[in-house]
Each structure stands twice: as C-alpha cells, then as structure tokens.
Design brief:
Belongs to the phosphoglycerate kinase family. Helix content is 31%, strand content 18%. By secondary structure, the chain is of the alpha/beta class. Among the domains are: 169 residues, Rossmann fold (3-Layer(aba) Sandwich); 206 residues, Phosphoglycerate kinase, N-terminal domain (Rossmann fold, 3-Layer(aba) Sandwich), CATH 3.40.50.1260. The longest helix has 18 residues. Bound molecules: adenosine-5'-diphosphate and 1,3-bisphosphoglyceric acid. The site of adenosine-5'-diphosphate has 20 residues, from strand 14 and helix 15. 1,3-bisphosphoglyceric acid binds next to helix 16.
C-alpha cells in the first residue's frame, strides 16, 4: 500500500528532504485559540516583507498573531522566509513603467470555428494581469496554445483577444510574433498599464528546446519576469525556465502560488482512501506518472486513451484505438507493480467503440476484450461507470486528470460526464475532489459542476507531477524570497515533531474566479507529520505561496 506522500518536491520548503514518514494528522486551530490581540506587535514593514499586507491586511494581522503566539507562548525561534518571490511582493514603485514578461497558460480548448469552449485558464490569469496593470506595468503576455509544429494558424492566440479584453476591461493588443523587430516596436509603444499579447511561443521550435539564445531574445523584450503558467510549470521551456536566467527579478504570479498552495497541502497529507483517475490522450507523458502514483494512492482508475496500451500489453486486440507501442512493456510492469503494492488498479471492463473518429460515428458498447478490427475505443462503457462509482464511493480524496472519453463528441461524453457527476456528489459528502487539466476542467464545466469541486486546477500534467513529488522547473527557476527574521533565540515549541502551519484565504478573498482554486476561509492548520519530517535544529517559518505559511520546528 502506498505510504503518505512526502512533501519533498510538492513543497518549496528547501530543507524538507525526508524520504520516509508516517501519515499526518491535522489539527485545526480555531481563531479563539490564537494569542490575544495584544500580541499583534508586528510592524507594517514586517507584514509587507511577509508579503501579506498588500494582498489582505486582515490576513496579515492574523498571520502575525499566530506567528507571535507561537513565538511568545513557546519560545520558538523562527525565521520567516518567502521561499519564492511573489508578484505581490512587487509594489507600484517596482512596477510602474516597467516592461513585465508575463508567462501564462492560456492553452484553452477551441472548437472548429475557433470559438473558446472553456475560458477557465483565461479567467485564472486575470488577477495577476490586473495587479500588474493597476501598478502601471507594461504587460507583455505570453502563452502557448496546443502543440504546433512551426507556425500554424489554427494555433494562433488571436481568438483569445476579445475574451481577454472583456475580462480586463481594456483593449489587449496582439502581436503577430513573439520575438523580432515588429514585436519590439509594439513593446516600445506600450503605455503604462497596457497589455500586449505575443503570438504562440511554440511557433518557434526553440521554445520547447529551451534554447538559450531564444530565451535571451524573449527576455530582451522586458525588464522583469512573472511566471503564472501553472499548467506549464512542469516544462523547462524558454518562456518558462530559460528567460529567468536573463530577467531579474523572476517571480511567481498569483495563480501559480495559489495552485501550489492548495495542491501541496491537499496531496502531501491526503485523507484516505486516496484515489487517482487518469485518462485523456497524452498517454506518453502521463503513463510514466502512474508508476509514482502507485506509491501514493490506494485506488487508481484508468480511462480515456490511456487504457488501450494496457489492453494491448495484456494481449487483447484494440482495433484502431490510441496505443503507444513503445509503452507496452511499461504498461505490463505497471500492472504487476500495482498488484505487488496492493493498489486497486481498475481498467474499464467495457468500452464504447466507434467506426471513425467523428461525432456522427456509428457506435456500440463492447467488452474491453472484444474490440473488432477497424473500430476504436472512444469512451468507457456503462459497466465500467458502475464499477468506478463503487470504488469512488469508498474514497476520501480524489484527484482526476484526463477525460474518460472523447467528451467533445456527445456520443462519447457519457463516461466523462458520469465521473464528473459522481465527483460532484462526493464533494457534497465531504470528499476532497481535485480536477486538473485543460480538457478535464472543460468537461467538468460542461457538466456544470465545477463550482462544487474542492479544487479546479489549471494544470493536469503539472498537478500530477507535483503529486509524484517532482520539482517543477518553472517554479524552481524563480528567485528566492528574502528571509525575514521573526524572533531570534528560543528553544522550540516543546512539541516533539515537525509542524507545518498552513493558512489559506478563500478564492473570493483574492478576487479570483470561484471556479479556480476554491479553498476554505482563512484558518490555521497544524499538520504533524511525524518524526520523519524533522527538518533540523532550527525553527523556520516559510511561505510557500501567496498566503501560505509553513512553520517547521526542530
Ligand atoms: N479513447 C480516447 N481516444 C482518443 N482521445 C481521447 C480518448 N479519451 C479521451 N480522449 C481525448 O483526450 C483529450 C484530453 O486529454 P489530455 O490533454 O490528456 O487531458 P487534460 O487536458 O485534461 O490534461 C480530449 O480532447 C479527449 O477527446
Ligand atoms: O494543457 C496543458 O497540460 P494538461 O493537458 O496536462 O493540463 C498545458 O497547457 C501544458 O501543455 P503541454 O502538455 O502541451 O506542455
């Protein structure tokens, strides 16, 4: 069985390098358990340095009270460190008139007529853009869309301009390129508080190769860098990692922080049983994740285009379904590993097949072992839905990435919609439900249940890699925040185990769209992670995200 996930790699806590640990218990402190208001002796300057004051003064005071209460009541010594510098740490003086290269993930689904079918990622990018505009920056907004090979008109970012302009309340200017003299001219003519959207950065192959010369060209457009592209933070590309070598400071945007804040907390100490549902079509990038998931989860449900590689590996015929031939051995070893680990790995027992990849294809439901030649599996079948629902009923935490079928075609949307509805029902019963990935989120939006999920993540692959315990290159590359001393001296809290405090605001507190990263209202949690988490002799307080503090006591 899976052991609890280690925070290493989820967390930005540099010293948390433990490899083994016991499951955590969670103690929630009510506001009344904090110190008295007389202990609110933090000065505004300290709060500002903590990065809380600008975002939410009340929250800042609450944090200060808690920090103070630990310090005063227990003699804890502490150093406050903002592990990664935040855009919220940059003031008007830092930003006014500055050219800011802002990398977002605006990789939204478009239909055949180039209409946006789900704008979650655009809405999620708005708080950081607005913050920069309000502070008089010139925003050079950059994103990829899809996986183009060279310049491909259908992957242009042009269709995003009207929605972006509408959400921001200003006319966004669009460049036809992402580097070069025309772009430079447009940048030079930008007034303070305006936004220039660059063309798809992936029109250059150098982007994904993280070519240093290309990164230098992108960086030369700006004075400083903000990465808010959580969905692409697991990619070391020129616009996510390379540019940080040439732009100082390089800081995290609000969405990136918010995603880390939620996901680090939720998946490092999941309520169990913990299930993952993995589907979609990015088989080669996600099948490798399954190996690590087997170390973390109790139940693993597979659907979407993922399953046919597993069927074929077991000697079944899969017709013309999506298969990654070079992953067949891996699929076999994953099945064996799941068995050895005692993880329930469930593959669909029946599938909906089609005679062509089209919305008007002929379809039928067949057992997974009976896919005829010339037919392809485009959805999971009704028996599988029943089995999956039964398994999900036993869980307390579920992370879902990748639709169960080609949900864009109504005929093949039933399995995905059934899972979305099941997760919505379970959310209402207190199960933690985390949905990640552009298409998975679009599916949940389509069913109209996004608002009831515990967390809607803008990154599928990125959230899975976090869950794996991997460090995200887009995050690692950002500048470290400056440590701030809280209270020198002292001898620790007198509690014989590592402590993490976690404090998170609700999404509304930040003016972030509700569908993105909803969370509980401000409260302080103490998570005792057992002796395995002892970080070392000193007590350290870290901020891992905009509104998250980690207090580690040795
Ligand atoms: N059986 C299948 N065959 C081919 N494509 C599939 C299948 N099931 C799901 N898909 C496709 O997978 C895509 C989403 O995959 P992916 O990008 O991995 O998910 P996400 O964006 O949620 O991370 C959808 O466009 C969907 O049509
Ligand atoms: O859609 C994305 O990832 P996701 O489908 O894993 O959520 C991101 O925009 C990253 O895209 P990529 O997987 O082509 O690098």
């Amino acid at each position: 069985m899976a052991s609890a996930a280690t925070p290493t790699g989820f967390s930005l806590l540099r010293q948390s390098t433990t490899t083994s640990r016991t499951r955590s218990s969670l103690l929630q402190l009510s506001p009344s358990s904090s110190s008295s208001s007389s202990s609110l002796s933090f000065r505004p300057a300290t709060l500002r340095r903590l990065g809380f004051a600008a975002a939410d003064p009340l929250l800042a005071l609450t944090v200060a009270a808690r920090v103070r209460s630990f310090g005063a009541g227990n003699g804890a010594r502490g150093v406050v460190s903002m592990a990664k510098k935040s855009v919220g740490d940059l003031s008007g003086a830092d930003l006014k008139g500055k050219k800011v290269f802002l990398r977002a993930d605006l990789n939204v689904p478009l239909d055949d007529n180039q209409n946006i079918t789900d704008d979650t990622r655009i809405r999620a990018a708005v708080p950081t853009i607005q913050y920069l505009i309000k502070n008089g920056a010139k925003v050079i907004l950059s994103s990829h869309l899809g996986r183009p090979k060279g310049v491909t008109p259908k992957f242009s970012l042009a269709p995003l301009v009207p929605r972006l302009s509408e959400l921001l309340g200003i006319q966004v200017v669009k460049a036809d390129d992402s580097i070069g003299p025309e772009v430079e001219k447009l940048v030079a003519s930008l007034p303070d508080g305006s936004v220039l959207l660059l063309e798809n950065v992936r029109f250059y192959k150098e982007e994904e190769k993280n070519d240093p010369e290309h990164a230098k060209k992108l960086a030369s457009l700006a004075d400083l860098y903000v990465n808010d592209a959580f969905g692409t933070a697991h990619r070391a590309h020129a616009s996510t990692e390379g540019v940080t070598k040439y732009l100082k400071p390089s800081v995290a945007g609000f969405l990136l922080q918010k995603e880390l804040d939620y996901l680090v907390g939720a998946v490092s100490n999941p309520k169990r049983p913990f299930a993952a549902i993995v589907g979609g079509s990015k088989v080669s990038s996600k099948i490798g994740v399954i190996e690590s998931l087997l170390e973390k989860v109790d139940i693993l449900l597979l659907g979407g285009g993922m399953i046919f590689t597993f069927y074929k590996a077991q000697g079944l015929s899969v017709g013309s379904s999506l298969v990654e031939e070079d992953k067949l051995n891996l699929a076999t070893s994953l099945l064996e590993k799941a068995k050895a680990k005692g993880v329930s790995l469930l593959l669909p027992s029946d599938v909906v097949i089609a005679d062509k990849f089209a919305p008007d294809a002929n379809s039928q439901v067949v057992p997974a072992s009976a896919i005829p030649d010339g037919w392809m599996g485009l959805d999971i079948g009704p028996d599988s839905v029943k089995t999956f629902n039964k398994a999900l009923d036993t869980t307390k935490t579920i992370i879902w990435n990748g639709p169960m079928g080609v949900f864009e075609f109504d005929k093949f949307a039933v399995g995905t919609e059934a899972v979305a509805k099941k997760l919505a029902e379970l959310s209402g019963k207190g199960v933690t439900t985390i949905i990640g990935g552009g298409d998975s989120v679009a599916a949940v939006e389509k069913v109209g249940v996004a608002s009831v999920m515990s967390h809607i993540s803008t990154g599928g692959g990125a959230s899975l890699e976090l869950l794996e315990g991997k460090e995200l290159p887009g995050v690692l590359a950002l500048n470290e925040a400056t440590p701030v001393a809280v209270r020198p001296g002292g001898s620790g809290l007198g509690i014989p185990m590592g402590l993490h405090t976690r404090l998170s605001p609700s999404s509304e507190d930040e003016g972030t769209p509700k569908a993105v990263g909803s969370h509980s209202s401000p409260s302080l949690h103490l998570c005792s992670n057992g002796p395995g988490d002892f970080p070392g002799p000193s007590s350290r307080l870290y901020r891992t995200a905009a509104h998250s503090l980690h207090l580690v006591v040795g």
